[in-house]
Amino acid sequence: MQDEDQVGRDGFAFEGNWREYAPIAFTNLLLTIVTLGIYRFWATTRSRRYFWENTRFIDDHLEWTGKGFELFLGFVMALVLIGGPVLFLNFGVQALILHGHPLFAMLTALFAFLLLFYMVGLARFRAVRYRLGRTWWHGIRGGSEDSGLRYGVSYVWKTFVGSFLLGLLVPWSMMSLWNERWNAMSFGPHRFEAAGDYRNVFKRFLLFYLFPILVLIGSFVFGAVMVAMQSGAPQGEAPDPDSLVSQLAFVGMAIGIYAALGLIALAYYAKFFREAVDELSLADLNFHFYARTKDWVMLILVDILLVIGTLGIGAIFLDYRHWKFFITNLGATGSIDTDALTQSTTSLARHGEGLLDALDVGAF
Amino acid sequence: MEDFLLWHYDGKSATRRSVVPQTRDGGFVLADPESDWIGDPVAWSDLVVIRQQRGHSAYGHRDRPGWRIGFTGDAPPEFAALLPKNEHYGKWVDKIGLWPAVGTFATLAVVAIFVLFQSPQWLAPLVPQSWENNLGDAMIGDFGNRYCRTPESAAALQALVREIDPKGEARQVEIANIPMVNAITLPGGHILLFDGLVQAADSPDELAGVLGHELGHVRHRDSMAGLLRQIGVGLFLGGFGGEAGNTLSNLVTLSYGRKAEAAADGVAIERLEAADISPKATADFFAKLARKEGSNARVMSFLSSHPVSDDRRRRFETSVVAGRAYRSALTNEQWQAVRNACRDDPNVASPIRWVS
What we know:
Chain A is built from 13 helices and 11 strands. Chain A is α+β, with helices and mostly antiparallel strands. Chain A has 2 domains: 12-195 and 262-359, no CATH class; 197-261, no CATH class. Chain B is 49% helix and 16% strand. In chain B, a hairpin with a 2-residue loop joins strand 6 and strand 7 (64-72). In chain B, helix 3 runs antiparallel to helix 8 and helix 7 (204-220) packs across helix 11 (280-295). The longest helix of chain B has 26 residues, at 98-123.
């Protein structure tokens, strides 16, 4: 966390600093605890207001006009719309098992799962729509005419198909869902156009398939080293499998495997996000995203150190760090005609991203 | 205020204007000094704060989406005095101040948690017994044909039930084909003694003690309270969201609570006493469980949710009246019939591993 204003490239800049944000973060935490979590909707709103009003695009700042109450309302709606059926299905499945109908129980559970999955897709769409609808620049806001109901269906089947062929279709599934989502969004009178091409991220995705081979080679080398070490031990002394060295080596290898998997996931996501945002445009504006794998790695590493180093309290700054990362790496080229940027005619939902909040998925 | 320059968006297009405010009755109009443009009148009371930060101020209009005015630095005093105040923590908190609000919320939170944990016990007796019966029957049905019954075992079990539950408070007592050392009471007065428990018991007196305990749960409607708690906690912890909520809710609903278990033990002792059956066997059973607790890490709800076995053992042991001539809960033939119920019932469905 640096103090100086960080000017992003091509028009976007983040002008906040963490010391100014700290009183917001700490009072949010305090109020969230004493209200048993209910305040978190207002806390989110306060944080976003700060992030948005410290984000400059060309000559003016963004505005967040979302309200804590509408997030709360959305959450209550989600609780009733999802919580009710889930509770009912839960008891239904229990009853079916007790009655000795495991097949029906499984079918009911499958149905519940599909329904929940659909809701996740719908929630993702609604989250982007809600956020655009509450984001203003030059007195103009974004939104979408689409309810996202069809997107929910796409989300279910495209994610399902994505798992075919050992997951080889995942890049296609992710990119086509991104495009479908953003092509339905608008700002002012203009539609977003998303034309990300999954073929450009496919090579990165293949790293995942290289991984088992790397592990194989790694364990082979590991075994060879262990054998060499033991044969180097003085004669007559039995090699001790419980020695500290070999235990450390095993722990190190386990951590190494997780770290390598995380690294591959980050490398893929970095490429995916660059491709997706680079192919996103709005009228004559083209968006760009500059963060490379090492930037993402640094973001996550510092996140981890921050949270561990403060025994968890640092977690309240993660949103700040992520927003700053997003804005400082975001750029736009082209031109914008403010006279032609007229008010959005999309309808505004009166409730916030309740579905999203209840299911705990991110918007991007 | 003639030289107080504001920037302005009208909310219809993104075009930025430089304007000066001209005060009118209860409000002002905006005018562009370099052209004839004049905006619609605005009342002071229609203004809302959009931004007040680091010398940048922006205000919106209650009824005109996107309508904005703003300035850098300080507004002239006569203008500033009429501008609305910024909201900090939200309306309610701002009204009473941060610290009083924290105190109030913390107090309310403690009360809410207390009510949440206590209310199932208060509410369960208010649920009509017939509702509970219908709910329990609908949930359980024939338990997937996993009740072990032979003519001999059914008669023997009935004899035991007559002794322990002469008033017929439990609506159904069955041996369930589940190889776990456990017994459960389900809503609607259904008591299931698992076959694993029957096999682990050294004498029918032990089984009588467990039956008496479960009868206590029926009498106190603990399973109904448990069900209410499951619903309540599920709804409430939804507020925290995510995985932590689920884990917590499972932990909380796993047991009826130690108080309820101790109360059920009280009923067991009372029923054993009335039936003239020695509590000694039940005490020994707990001694066995206590040894298992030390060595065996298998998680069984009967073990994990009940009061520490050793304390319970002591309670049953002290209730033994020295010198009294107790009778056996079942004859040897009856006891064998109960033990062989699952083995000898040709129609029972195969055992299931019960995951509660």
